[in-house]
Specification:
Blueprint lengths: L40 H12 L2 H12 L4 H29 L3 H9 L5 H32 L5 H22 L1 H29 L12 H14 L1 H6 L5 H4 L8 H31 L3 H9 L3 H8 L1 H20 L6 H21 L3 H30 L6 H4 L9 H17 L21 H12 L32
């Protein structure tokens, strides 16, 4: 790692000419040559800020309030938990910067050529799912805000909005990293400005309830663990399979320290900011639904909020689509990256349509969330140990692409399997397969997490199907928590 002193976090050494800017990204999963590494730590900062200035963070910030925590407790969990999660995320970005290699190919060092196919397939499938989820989240918000400016169209308008968003994010992802970098660099500052105005308006008008909470004893502990998983430590960790896909474009003349801080803070600042804002608004009794939060708190700001809040899914999903194509190439798909991206976009569109037709957002969303954190956390632990402890940050890049390297590294695969089994054994989940099998876990309806689980099971036997509109905000316990507030992403 380059340890030369720097006068600024984002400053790079001028020891060699900077690479020429490029437009279309023709790279696949081969190491990025120095001539094509024209990104900077500042670019990385904007990429990850853009990915996290999104409505989903709003929703997840309200989760702590809906689980019965006080506003103070929610803010503490969000702030402290993300220090750990975003720190881990920063370390993973250093891997891509040091090697010029994308994240799933780097997994070959730990799991072997064939062993790395397992997390690669998981990453590819989940990223397509997240495209559908992230787009779905903003549809009701967009339709509600369009209604405030006199544009109505019911379900048809929702499909039009979905088509426009999908077309925009797919087009950027097809062009690849350079288009993504440019899009985030020029659009995110405007989004941040509007979010700052929204924050000031909401906090000066809202009647915050700092110490009002309903959870106590073991219920409070359960609520804290759920919030830590959703928008605390778990949030930053859920992004680590993406990290090196973008930091590999930062030239080696930039210090590893600057890459770490740019990416870690680029994840931390918007995540904590928006989650805290969502928690503050939810504490006033407005609930966690993004449509209600925006319309109720911002009124005349509806139109600029509409234009810029739609930036959220695009800025996030271009990363999902791009990383999905790299994951597919990493496991052996033989096609041009842009063609794989188009195919991933088609699958993601189908996923979106499924979510739009589903009766419960939480039922679909939590299915992805429980899956993603179960495998990512132990996978991340294995990768960190392999790269920073066993190999001390040094990897033979050529061996990652060589057929002579080990096909399976059983030590890492066994550790991954053990970690997944441990996580599965203890977690709370709405999906029956993912519910904790150990004695004493979620056997009653008392805790907020188990209340959500039991209410989900009850809903499968209830008669009328729900409307396709957004679920209403939850009432205080002992009512089940709001379905939409029970969600958690990465992405």
């Amino acid at each position: 790692m380059n340890t030369a002193p720097r006068s600024s976090l984002f400053e790079a050494q001028e020891t060699e000419p900077a690479p020429m800017p490029q437009s279309f990204d023709a790279h696949g999963v081969e190491p990025i040559p120095e001539s094509s590494r024209d990104s900077s730590p500042r670019d990385q900062w904007w990429i990850w800020v853009g990915a996290n200035v999104a409505p989903i963070n709003w929703v997840l910030g309200a989760l702590g309030i809906n689980l019965g925590l006080t506003l103070v407790e929610t803010l503490i969990v969000i702030s402290l938990g993300n220090i750990v999660g975003c720190g881990v995320f920063g370390l993973f970005n250093m891997m891509g910067h040091r090697t010029g290699v994308n994240q799933m190919v780097l997994g070959r060092a730990a799991f072997g050529r064939r062993g790395a196919i397992i997390p690669g397939v998981m990453q590819g499938l989940l990223t397509m799912g997240w495209v559908g989820v992230n787009t779905w989240v903003v549809l009701d918000l967009a339709v509600a805000l369009l209604g405030k400016v006199g544009i109505h169209g019911g379900e048809g308008l929702k499909y039009v909005v979905a088509a426009v968003v999908m077309a925009a994010q797919l087009g950027l992802a097809v062009f690849g990293f350079y288009a993504i970098r440019t899009f985030e660099r020029w659009t995110v500052p405007a989004t941040v400005l509007v979010m700052a105005v929204m924050t000031v308006l909401s906090l000066t008008q809202a009647d915050l309830q700092w110490t009002s909470g309903t959870a106590s004893g073991t219920d409070r502990v359960t609520a804290v663990t759920q919030l830590v998983t959703a928008i605390g430590i778990g949030w930053g960790i859920s992004w680590v399979p993406y990290s090196a896909d973008y930091s590999r474009f930062v030239p080696s003349r930039c210090s590893g320290r600057s890459v770490f801080w740019a990416t870690a803070l680029g994840m931390y600042v918007p995540t904590v900011w928006l989650a805290a804002l969502g928690a503050c608004l939810a504490s006033t009794g407005q609930g966690g639904d993004p449509s209600e939060l925006v319309i109720g708190a911002f009124g005349v700001m509806a139109l600029p909020v509409l234009l810029l809040i739609m930036h959220g899914p695009v800025a996030t999903n271009i990363l999902n689509l791009y990383s999905c194509s790299l994951a597919a190439l990493s496991v052996g798909v033989r096609a041009a990256r842009w063609k794989v991206t188009l195919a991933a976009g088609a699958v993601a569109t189908v996923v979106l349509l499924v979510f739009m037709q589903s009766h419960s957002f939480a039922e679909s969303f939590d299915h992805w969330m429980t899956s993603i954190l179960v495998w990512i956390s132990p996978w991340a632990a294995v990768m960190l140990t392999e790269f920073f402890v066993l190999r001390r940050g040094r990897i033979d890049v050529k061996q990652l692409y060589s057929d002579r390297g080990p096909a399976w590294r059983w030590r890492a695969l066994v550790a991954l399997a053990a970690g997944i089994a441990a996580a599965w054994s203890w977690q709370y989940g709405l999906v029956p397969l993912m519910q904790a099998p150990l004695p004493g876990t979620c056997t009653t309806r008392t805790s907020p997490g188990c209340r959500a689980q039991w209410s989900q099971e009850d809903s499968t036997t209830s008669s009328p199907a729900r409307s396709s509109g957004p679920p209403a905000a939850s009432a205080p316990p002992p009512q089940p928590i709001d379905d939409r507030a029970a969600v958690a992403q990465p992405p």
